[in-house]
Give the backbone structure.
Amino acid sequence: MPHDVFGTPVIAAPMAGGTSTPALVEAVHRAGGLGFLAAGYKTVAAMQAEIRTTRESGARFGMNVFVPDPAQLAPTTALLAELGAYRQQLQSDARRYGVELPEFRLDDDDEWQGKVDALLADPVELVSFTFGLPGHDVVRALQRAGSAVLATVTTAAEARQAAEQRVNALVVQHASAGAHSGAFLPVPEVRPAGPQQGRSQPGGTTAELLAEVRAAVDLPLVAAGGVMDAAGLDAVLRAGAAAAQLGTAFVRADESGARQLHKDALADPHFTRTRLTRAFTGRQARALENEFVRDHPEAPEAYPAIHHLTAPIRAAAAAAGDAERLNLWAGAGWQQAQSGPAADIVARLLG
């Protein structure tokens, strides 16, 4: 079977910001799946603590790491001006909750080198990368340490670049996936006729994207985006995926660390669609369309500066129970997300 590369066709996606937890990874493992932890937004010490906890549970797992973008860490004068204008737009949101917006933070590389060094010193079975490629030297070093390396790609062109770095496998992320896009090569942005930023729903299918990538590279592929049930899983496996990586399907799980407000929003009929937006972090991400998304359709491309800029607003919205100002990450199939034990979710997927 093609999923023998991972030992299972079901992979719980790494979801940064606290959603992926050691408890979720353990529950998915015990039910016959494979879970990933997320190093994003964590300190090196916090990443290491989660590794220790998960190891103690006996679960197989992987770790995902954000690749910093040098261009975003050294913004141009023009981009700084856009950031200043966006900061002014956000003042009304800040006043709503009585919070202060921070000064721009332009030096946050998510402790990149420290995390790589820690994973080399104490290797894990699988290491995946998002937002870019880690570089030949990092790939080789991790492989020599005993880790299999996965890169997240969104196009055949990105897949070819990843294959040149000789990674072990690719996570092929379709635009229907929830939360941040892993894209690292520029692509034309499709804008609808109205004022909303990005596309309301993606074109094509995850299976079609898999076919494009399969034609470009000869590597095991993990399908990401739009897989919510056994039928969706079967479709991507038939299209040649070694496994499927699911995020939104696990957000409402008991073991998920997502805010209850987020979990409840996924089941709230008030929200009727998802959109790609940069409003919360400065990087395209798919979220439930709420007031914040509608109010800020032209946020600049400036990650992670905007992530830090909106952090007080998002924290205050969460404390106030206001889902209209919170980043409600969700894939296009969010309405199928179910609550309950992660083991039950995996069981439904495996049929």
Observations:
- The longest helix spans residues 305-320.
- The domain at 2-350 is CATH 3.20.20.70 (TIM Barrel).
